[in-house]
Amino acid sequence: MSFLPSPFDSPSFRLAWLAGLSKKLLGAGSKNEVLDLIDDALSVPAPGGNQGVIEGLATLYRSQVGNVGSVFDQVDRVGRKGLPEVWAGDTGVLASDVVKAAGRAATQMSEAFQESATVLLTLADAIGAAQRKDEQGRGQLVEQKKMLGGRDGFFDDLRENDEEEWDRKNAAHLGSYAVDLMHAAVSEAQEATRVAARDLNKWAAEARAGKMETSELTAVDKLMLADAGVAGADTELNEILKAGELARASTRMDLLSLDDEMAMERMLAKSENPQERAYLMKALAAGHSVADIGEFQDKIHGKDPDWMRRHLTPVVTAEDSMNDEGLAANGSNNNTDSVTFDGQRWIQGGDGSEGTCVASSTVTSRAMIDPLYALELTGGPDGQEDDPDAFRQRLVAEQHRLHTEGDGGENWTGMGPEGQERINDTAVGSATGSDYQRQDLDSAADRRAVLTEVEKSVAQGHPVPVDVSGKDGAHAMTIIAQEGDMLQVYNPWGSTTWVSEDDFINGHMGKASDSDLPNAYSVYLPR
């Protein structure tokens, strides 16, 4: 006996099915047709989920907040006593810095438990409300079925008096309304589940030190690597190592030979600041050999954290970047942040004049996850340059290389989807160990359905290319981060901005470019 998945397992299928039944009921021409359509609607499964179980899990999470709070209090007391300048861990970090990082980790853990509990309670309420709405719709359908009575025979169906016609039409009308209630229940449960998954995935990604399961580093070292942020910027918005990078670095550390492992530990211990250590592990996460990472350290060792930020982190997110400052005349957000190196933008063609948006987005995506690649572009062969003109020449040359590799159009214009997928695999997927696959978005429902995967990917540190279109043609950008219901978008015109989930779903992506390019029609998801 085989158990095949039912099409009703898909909320999208249930929504389409119920919408179709509601419309058919209004046009039903016989009593038997109305009864058949009611039976079809009653066969659709009710929204799943157990409200009580979800509430119980939320209560459990909330009960942990106090426990974490006591841990923070103990850490805080230690920190305020004034620790001596002693070293901890294998990589040589100050004990005082470790205590500060532990305090921040405890605070984040407390927030994670508290916010996750809130997310689960909200989900439980939404599931309960959806199930009650579904039950109300089903009850009305059963009432209409009883009111109509048994099925008509062949001769009964040939003639319908005025009273029978009234009963049929009334049952069809009320039945359509009842099916609409069931449709709304599925829709509301689906959206509540999506939002809960988004928020829980985000909080799971924030459990950062736990992503490093390697036994080759101490708990102190893992904590400090997870805590390292880009210099001079809000750490929570600008961690050097994303959750997926911490996990990949951990896995690759375990696969090193004994000699390479010892060399890596010596490099970490030699590092002069947390940022240097984090960039070394980021390079390991991007798949580089220990020998290459050693050469990389020689180029960045002794540099201050601000130098490393400029050379190794193309996109730095400002604390006020999500403020709503309205729209410009062309429909784009006023609140955008330029992506620059020494004043030169990371922009297609070096000045925005070329149509290499796909290749340019891919170049910047790779630079965001691979510090060796970023330094080759910003610092040149020896990694020491601080010349915006030389950077521009290298940037455009690399954009042209990927444009050619992806079979882009002549005169540096356009690229087909196969080429776009290919260069994302070779340039970005080769560093993350993932394979990009195109997913077409033909409707608002498609865009809503893909959001959970998009947001989970960027929370792990995997950029997600997004193609937009409109009367001005088509354009390629990249979704690079998510906070709440907001998505951060890099536009290869040389800037980043935030759009809402609603903007992505309902055709307002012009806020990240201009109003002539409103519709997201495809994304490329890392698998």
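Second entry:
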Amino acid sequence: MDLQRIRNTSIIAHIDHGKSTLADRMLELTGAVDARDMRAQYLDSMDLERERGITIKLQSVRLDWKDHVVNLIDTPGHVDFGYEVSRSLAACESVILVVDAAQGIEAQTLANCYLAMENDLEIVACLNKIDLPAAEPDRYAAEIENVLGIPAEDILRISAKTGEGVGDVLDAVLDRTPAPEGDADAPLQALIFDSHFDQYRGVVSSIRVVNGVMNSRDKLKFLHAGTSHDPDEIGVRTPDNLPVDELGPGETGYLIAGIKDVGEARSGETVTTDRRGSDEPLDGYKEPKPMVFSGLYPIDGDEFSDLREALEKLRLNDSSFTYEPETSGALGFGFRCGFLGLLHMEIVRERLEREFGLTLISTAPSVAYRITKGDGSEIICSNPSELPPAAEIVSIAEPYLKASVLTPTDYTGTIMDLCQTRRGEMVKMDYLSPERVEIHYRLPLGEVVIDFFDQLKSRTQGYASLDYEPDGYAVDNLVRVDILLHGDPVDAFSSIVHKDKSYDYGRKMAEKLKELIPRQNFEVPIQAAIGGKIIARSTVKAYRKDVTAKLYGGDVTRKNKLLKKQKEGKKRMKSIGRVDIPQEAFISALQLDD
């Protein structure tokens, strides 16, 4: 195909600003989907996406418009899925930036726009939802010009819901997007930018051909994996899979090569031909660094191997999470998993349970600490139970974030109060307009991963938005709080917290476990400890049989003798007794901060 007739673009925006709805209207307008087959969020194929109303995975589709081919990628908007956005931008020459005409610029609008600018992509800006009574397109066009430097007269006014102005967006993409560069006569170089596992056909990869031509008759070589495969099918998504004989430079499509080993077709892999192919791999992608860690354990220990297989297959589709095996005295065998954020953690767990039929327990989220030991060595510790003894530790450094909060000015005080209580340091404050302000804070990641986002939304009635990026490590006064049950530490409940908050954490956890652990025939002490020092305690009282019920008068010594015998029996039982924690107690206790 003539390169001058190809345009590669993706849609970027904050959550709920109308990306998927705009993609729906484009599918209708270009005739890619029949009106009778049309449904809302057409490109969101996962049940989870449709239920939550959010995009989790990038989706590509090929559209025909005015004798041109537009390869469009719909991307997620949430900060936890920013990695999906950066991957899709590597396969494009322009982006369609969508801003809500009733809300204006939000945190992810800025973050995604800066990503596009870093990649030198052309930006087609649109103000969406102009049909809403609360829409103020002129005001927010001026705000976009002021903050992002895009001229107000170049910003399109559209309504993805009614379809108004959507044709103008496609026209602007044709006019402003440069044609892709590539040499059809060069050796084949194609980049895999996404993959998923189909149980009948093996690995299905989304590819962008950079140079050369991919032909369904040529044997293909995967450079990083060092393996060769015959293609079963190559094709384009229109949005249904449409097989084609070949894909030329600048084109986007899919590849099925009967690959059963999920490690052979990861995102960032370069595909070339087996004979006379290229030896030069493409740049690929930077591996994202996980920020939040949690243990995943099967409730039924026999499902451990199923969990490992499920994680392998899911890692192919979502390469932004990591996992490694670990064991817990309380929970058995499982995996320590790293995620980009709390929503990402929730989505991965839910996908494992739905798509692979597993029943899982996840431990409380934690972050990776940098420990400096007495001998000068440094270790990274993401599991509190693996922390070295206090005598060996010189210092504990925790990860920090650069967070930017966009909010109406009315909520400035309440946001500053929230960040201050989470040990945040204010960096600066920028007024985007008299009504809206962007507040920059430096915050410890450990204070953000639990419920910071929920608190932010509830304190600002949903108007504030948050974006963040890593900002190194800093040493602070951190301690490990252990929970002892009947004198034995329970590793799943260990947590690293700031010393000032350790008493509160220990007291809350002890009180919560007191409600959750069933009574035994002996007294069960629940203690929170820092090293050898107990900082909080509660007690699960024992069952007590009324041994004196059969007495009907007589000397008091008979009563005392029976009570003494009962007391000795309980003492003996306590010394040999063991407390089993029910699974429900684990699940409830680990939701301490929810």
